[in-house]
Design a protein that fits this description.
- By secondary structure, this protein is an alpha+beta fold.
- The protein has a domain of 146 residues: BirA Bifunctional Protein, domain 2 (2-Layer Sandwich), CATH 3.30.930.
- A 6-stranded antiparallel β-sheet has the order 1-4-6-5-2-3.
- α1 packs across α2, α2 crosses α10 and α9 packs parallel to α13.
């Protein structure tokens, strides 16, 4: 059993891959440094692991639902999110408006403030964002967290927000001008969306609501998110409740999920070797969490077949009288002879089968 820096180094190195965007991963040194700038601490990684695999904390949703190509589309979205003036609409200065006249005044302000927004445009002049939490979360807390999120992530832009609490999941609609106050244009990418999810979850935790922003690959999720129109149609009974969501597939899906499972395997192995009972208990939760995931259940039959073939090969090797004489038992193993990067399918097989042991 071991404890201390060696285990913490593994947690930092592999925990980054699970909980932070790929573009933020620092290529590890031969001996991982625990606290270089902008890297999470081992304690922070432990907290993220416990929230994900032990408490199964609710996952936040942050989604760009579209954008207005011109003032006509922006005004239509304003009318939708505030129910044509029936719901309160709050701007980036914290001013709250209500009613049709106030809504029309806000539309006129957006049209002429900064660069003039034409009625129709070839580009997005605004982005529509939705921040949501599962049913049962206090709606006013979601609004406060959304307010904190916008002040941090959209502070150089004009935006409006409206709380919707009449549906199952409390959520906030945000509409943000693409052009910032200093003339720069918003262009959110995948890493931006992940950071936005992290920020929203952080603001909820600051308000006492447990929330996580774990990536789908790290959770072993294999379902595609439904489009907004599908969610609304299902809620209104216009889409069959029995209709299943599409399952993800493809090379990118395989790489991200097999990579996440490899990271879980390394973390589990390190925690199992710890002198701290809480670490070893956390390792057990990781095994249960991974085994319960949709992705593991999807690939388990193939992993079992590959493991059986590997065991059969090893048995054959042991039957050769000179197989280990000049090489040693470890050197005789086929997987020890690989010097090139292991293909994603083999990584997935080894890391996921190791979860079961």
């Amino acid at each position: 059993m071991t404890t201390g820096p060696s285990i913490d180094g593994v947690l930092v190195e592999w925990g980054e891959r699970l909980f932070y965007p790929a573009s933020h991963i620092v290529k590890p040194d031969a001996t991982p440094r625990l606290n270089p700038p902008n890297r999470p601490s081992a304690a922070a990684i432990r907290q993220r692991i416990a929230a994900t695999v032990v408490r199964r904390a609710p996952q936040v949703m942050v989604k760009v639902t579209g954008g207005g190509r011109g003032m006509g589309a922006i005004a239509a979205h304003f009318r939708y999110i505030c129910k044509n003036g029936q719901l309160r609409i709050e701007d980036d200065r914290g001013v709250v408006r209500e009613g049709k006249e106030a809504m029309h005044d806000l539309i006129d302000q957006w049209r002429v403030s900064g660069s003039l927004i034409p009625e129709t445009s070839h580009r997005r002049e605004a982005f529509n964002i939705m921040l949501s939490m599962p049913q049962g979360t206090d709606a006013q807390t979601v609004l406060k967290a959304a307010r904190g999120f916008a002040r941090r992530e959209l502070r150089d832009h004009h935006y409006v927000m409206v709380l919707h609490e009449h549906q199952a999941n409390p959520h906030v609609h945000l509409s943000v001008k693409a052009e910032s106050i200093d003339g720069k244009r918003l262009n959110p990418r995948k890493t931006d969306l992940h950071r936005w999810r992290e920020t929203f979850a952080e603001k909820l935790r600051e308000l006492g609501v447990e929330a996580e922003a774990t990536r789908q690959a790290s959770r072993g999720a294999n379902r595609r998110d439904e489009s907004i129109w599908q969610v609304k149609a299902r809620q209104q009974g216009r889409l069959s409740q029995s209709e299943k969501q599409q399952v993800k597939s493809g090379a990118s899906y395989e790489r991200s999920h097999s990579g996440a499972f490899e990271a879980w395997a390394h973390i589990k192995k390190a925690l199992q070797a710890s002198d701290v009972p809480e670490d070893r208990e956390l390792a057990k939760h990781i095994v249960r969490f991974v085994s319960d995931s949709a992705y593991f259940k999807e690939v388990a039959p193939r992993l079992q077949r590959e493991a059986a073939r590997t065991d059969k090969q090893r048995s054959a090797e042991h039957a050769w009288p000179n197989a280990a004489d000049g090489m040693g038992r470890e050197a005789a193993r086929p997987d020890k002879q690989l010097s090139a990067p292991v293909p994603s399918r083999e990584v997935k097989a080894r890391s996921s089968v190791d979860m079961e042991r």
